[in-house]
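F.,

This is the one I mentioned.
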């Protein structure tokens, strides 16, 4: 097990269970299996539509004595339709009620994108709001952001009274985000990587034709063979070598366990050099779905 200590002295477990795309009916069992396997970090979000089932699983885990609340790290995220100051607390309270928790360890602004309050997913220009900082205290122990580019993070730090502890972004060998990582290191912000395995289970409309496969990448599979481990474990161990946290999603008990066992894989300098050469700035989640004709958002990642 590896932890990263945040500016507020709290310890974020490096590997967490991702729950984006985890289907209802499966996510609860995944959470229980993960806790049994030794995970102490679960990554959630209101928009994933499965927090109530995660909450039931957490309740069961506590009741069965599998883990104590204070030994678990739970992250959730504020959806884009609740950035207005009077909407933040109700959104957070709904998440806490669904998760059946009194507090979160980390609450992230899910996207630097704001919708009007009654809009679930904006598709027309007049359903967006201008970006607005949202912040809450007391029932969240740490706050952070997600999907913030280097530029947006720098802008935020200019006048943030509570600088983010974490920025959660897409991160893997095809998208290594070196500049962002360096800036975060310098400013004591932990980067957490999502889609570390390439998120092959995204819905078809989020996928591009001819997407590169991370799990079948030749360099990755060769390194895996050498270490007698799986390609997924190489991808996750790479995060640990970069000092980034990572949240692989799985609802399969065998793969949930396998992913946590990446802690046991030690990549060599030679492996890391080979992986370094894979970077090509490739995004699986390109956020084009927020760029609607006449809308306020263009080039969300400032690239
Ligand atoms: P499953 O949930 O059936 O295990 P990401 O974390 O990048 O979003 O990727 C999630 C996808 O990767 C899911 O399709 C998940 O399937 C799959 N996956 C998770 N762990 C592994 C693993 N160890 N080996 C291969 N595929 C995995």
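My design for it:
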């Amino acid at each position: 097990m590896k932890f990263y200590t945040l500016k507020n002295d709290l310890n974020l477990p490096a590997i967490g269970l991702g729950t984006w795309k985890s289907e209802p009916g499966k996510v609860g069992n995944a959470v229980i299996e993960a806790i049994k396997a030794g995970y102490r970090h679960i990554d959630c979000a209101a928009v994933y539509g499965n927090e109530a089932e995660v909450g039931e699983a957490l309740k069961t885990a506590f009741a069965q004595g599998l883990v104590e609340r204070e030994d678990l790290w739970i992250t959730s995220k504020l959806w884009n339709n609740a950035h207005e100051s009077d909407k933040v607390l109700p959104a957070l309270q709904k998440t806490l009620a669904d998760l059946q928790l009194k507090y979160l360890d980390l609450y992230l602004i899910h996207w630097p994108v704001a919708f009007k309050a009654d809009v679930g997913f904006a598709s027309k220009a007049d359903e967006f709001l201008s970006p607005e900082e949202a912040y809450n205290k007391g029932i969240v122990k740490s706050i952070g952001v997600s999907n913030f580019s280097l530029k947006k993070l720098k802008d935020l730090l200019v006048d943030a009274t509570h600088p983010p502890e974490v920025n959660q972004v897409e991160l893997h060998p095809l998208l290594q985000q070196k500049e962002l990582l360096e800036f975060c290191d310098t400013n004591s912000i932990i980067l957490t990587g999502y889609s570390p395995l390439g998120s092959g289970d995204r819905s078809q409309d989020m996928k591009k034709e001819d997407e590169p496969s991370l799990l079948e990448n030749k360099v990755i599979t060769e390194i895996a063979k050498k270490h007698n481990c799986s390609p997924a474990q190489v991808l996750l161990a790479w995060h640990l070598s970069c000092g980034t946290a990572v949240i692989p999603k799985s609802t399969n008990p065998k793969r949930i366990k396998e992913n946590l066992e990446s802690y046991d894989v030690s990549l060599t300098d030679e492996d890391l050099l080979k992986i370094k050469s894979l970077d090509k700035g490739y995004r699986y989640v390109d956020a084009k779905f927020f760029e609607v004709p006449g809308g306020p958002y263009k080039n969300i990642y400032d690239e």
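Residues 61 and 131 are 37 Å apart (CA to CA).

Talk soon.
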